[in-house]
Amino acid sequence: FLTLNNILEEINLPLVEKIGSEFLLYNESLTTISLPSVKNIGSKFMKSSVLTSIDLPLVESIDREFLEDNRRLESISLPSVEIIGTDFLYRNQYITNVELPLLKYAGNRFLSSAKDLTNIKLPSIKTIGSDFLYNNESLTSLDLPLVQGVGYNFIFENKSLAKVNLPSVIYIRSSFLKYNEALTSIDLPLVESIGNQFLFFNESLESVNLPNVVLVGADFLYSNESFLKTLKLPKVAGIGSDFLHYNNFLTTLEL
């Protein structure tokens, strides 16, 4: 729709309800956008703008690559969105807060490389794709009360993340938590099955609670050079290869 318009400063489309792909690309003078009636957005909505905030009050669904490389974007408001495709927020480094109260489904690579992000609230989300959170270095906690299953590489390289709350999760695919150096504990009371590489290089891990897990894949705990001393899996019936690998502080294992 609009690409490489270096003098465009404002867009106001009060009656538009649907937007296709590649809406705003490389408009480096755009500072104001008003789309009060839009309900559906296609792929590649906005890339490389100088907007500081976006408010889309009626949007219900978003396709892939929503926001990418918007170097001044600090806040987004999507109070009605329920479905989001892949690559929702990518390299929008100054976003500090993401709150999506009605979101139920998020595709792969939901949020990555937002270095100032400190708060994320998704109280209604139930289904999450792979690579959910990657390289968000200021995020300290995550609470997803309704999520029942998570994809591959769920949380990867978020160096300040210390707390993860997933009280409803039943199944976990491979590479659940990797390179989250501040994470101290993980409590998953309802999880029954876990794929390969469950915990991988989480250096500060002290406790793991999995009271109902039945099946675990290969490389369950891999090189967590941490203070984890005790591991109890009272209901486990099946274990993959290389179950424990380079966990030098572990002194007690109960199966």
Describe the structure in your own words.
The protein has 255 residues and is mainly β. The chain contains no helices and 35 strands. The protein is 0% helix and 32% strand.
Quick structural overview:
The chain is mainly β and about 260 residues long. It contains no helices and 35 strands. It has a 12-stranded parallel β-sheet with strand order 1-4-7-10-13-16-19-22-25-28-31-34, with no helix packed on it.
Residue ranges: pLDDT <50 for 5 or more in a row? Answer: none
* Mean pLDDT across all amino acids: 89
Cα-atom Rg, whole angstroms? 20 Å
Q: Record the strand order, biggest sheet.
A: 1-4-7-10-13-16-19-22-25-28-31-34
Number of helices: 0
Percent of residues in helices: under 10%
What is the CA–CA distance across the termini? 59 Å
Q: What profile does the largest beta sheet have?
A: 12 strands, parallel
What is the subunit arrangement here? single chain
Count all strands and give the number: 35
* Cα shape: elongated
Alpha-beta classification: mainly beta
Provide the β-strand percentage band.
25-35%
Which characteristics define this entry?
255 residues, 32% strand, 35 strands, 6-stranded parallel sheet, mainly beta, 12-stranded parallel sheet
Layout: helices, strands, pairs:
Layout: E1 2-3, E2 10-12, E3 18-19, E4 24-25, E5 32-34, E6 40-41, E7 46-47, E8 53-55, E9 61-62, E10 67-68, E11 75-77, E12 83-84, E13 89-90, E14 97-99, E15 105-106, E16 111-112, E17 119-121, E18 127-128, E19 133-134, E20 141-143, E21 149-150, E22 155-156, E23 163-165, E24 171-172, E25 177-178, E26 185-187, E27 193-194, E28 199-200, E29 207-209, E30 215-216, E31 221-222, E32 230-232, E33 238-239, E34 244-245, E35 252-254
Parallel strand pairs: 1-4, 2-5, 3-6, 4-7, 6-9, 7-10, 8-11, 9-12, 10-13, 12-15, 13-16, 14-17, 15-18, 16-19, 19-22, 20-23, 21-24, 22-25, 24-27, 25-28, 26-29, 27-30, 28-31, 30-33, 31-34, 32-35
